[in-house]
Amino acid sequence: MSHPIPRHVRPRRSTFADANRYRSPLVFSGLFQHMLGMATRAVRRKMGDVVLLVDSTSLHLAGIGTQWARFSAEVCGAKAHVVYDPDLGHPVYHAVSAANVNDITPAKQMPIEPGATYVFDLGYYDYGWWAELDQADCRIVTRFRTNTPLLNARDTPRDPGSDVLSDRIGFLPARQAKSRKNPMQVAVREVVVMTETGKRLRILTNDLDAPAQEIADLYKRRWLIELFFRMMKQMLRITRFLGRSENAVRIQIAVALIAFLVLHLLHKTTQVKHGLLEFVRLVRANIMHRKDIRRLRENLPPPPIDSRQLALDWGYT
């Protein structure tokens, strides 16, 4: 039977905050990169098969030490910027910024994987960055803004029975803003689909050859990074920070990502048929017990028949 730690020997929260204010976050981000190598060592894929989802999530901050992340007179916050590989099931890159930093700014600093497919939303609407991806032979899948015209457009045939409303090839405007010339001068493609909620969605890609339904399905995979962010917030508790300085926030996010990779590797090692979410819940329930990780399988209920159980758990149906 475990006993509570006496109050007089518990480390104070301020002790953690002071330590995290001065401890280098490079120790933890370096460990995260090293573990990424362990997680992907056995994976050999052509870069043309690699899909990378790019997005960010906002983190609320409050109290002393949050001036670096001030968003307005009353609100402070940070952003975690992540590149997520949905086929590997874990992030492959991360960065941290104040909440008032546009998503495209950290994206321009991230390494580009030549030949990969990058899927992202309207927060990364920058013709210059798109041109860099295109020049690296990357496939782009994102959204058109409603007010962006497709110039000199020509229709292409649609596959019968597809969800695609239209499929056109054309060119972007010559300028993204009045004073900025558009460096993305190559032909692009607009695939229009109707969502389940009845919303008309304009999807942009520089892939002029793939089936339109494939492009639509690639954009739909963005919900996987939303699931990842929800797990990070609810299961790994990155919504509450031990320290509020920029250094402390960077450390806690890096540690949370390391914990996620450990859980991901354990999940693969045990070879359970259950989803990662159920496995994480089981580990949390047994975290204070000395038990062989392989024996955790004995405590798992039968796996759900529905392969979309994870999405249902999070409310994504």
List the helices and strands and how they pair.
Layout: H1 13-22, H2 26-40, E1 51-61, E2 76-85, E3 90-98, H3 104-107, E4 117-119, H4 127-135, E5 139-143, E6 151-155, E7 164-171, E8 175-177, E9 180-181, E10 188-194, E11 200-205, H5 212-220, H6 223-234, H7 246-270, H8 276-285, H9 309-314
Parallel strand pairs: 1-4, 4-5
Antiparallel strand pairs: 1-2, 2-3, 5-11, 6-7, 7-10, 8-9, 10-11
Helix pairs in contact: 1-7, 2-7
Strand portion? 15-25%
Percentage of residues assigned to helices: 25-40%
Helical segment tally? 9
Main sheet record: 9 strands, mixed
CA radius of gyration? 22 Å
- Low-pLDDT windows of residues: 305-310, 312-317
Q: Helix and strand string, N-terminal first?
A: HHEEEHEHEEEEEEEHHHHH
- The averaged pLDDT comes out at 82
Describe the oligomeric state of these chains in a short phrase. single chain
Total domains: 2
Biggest sheet, strands in spatial order?
Answer: 3-2-1-4-5-11-10-7-6
* Alpha carbon gap, first and last residue: 42 Å
- Sheet/helix structural class: alpha+beta
Number of strands: 11
Overall outline: globular
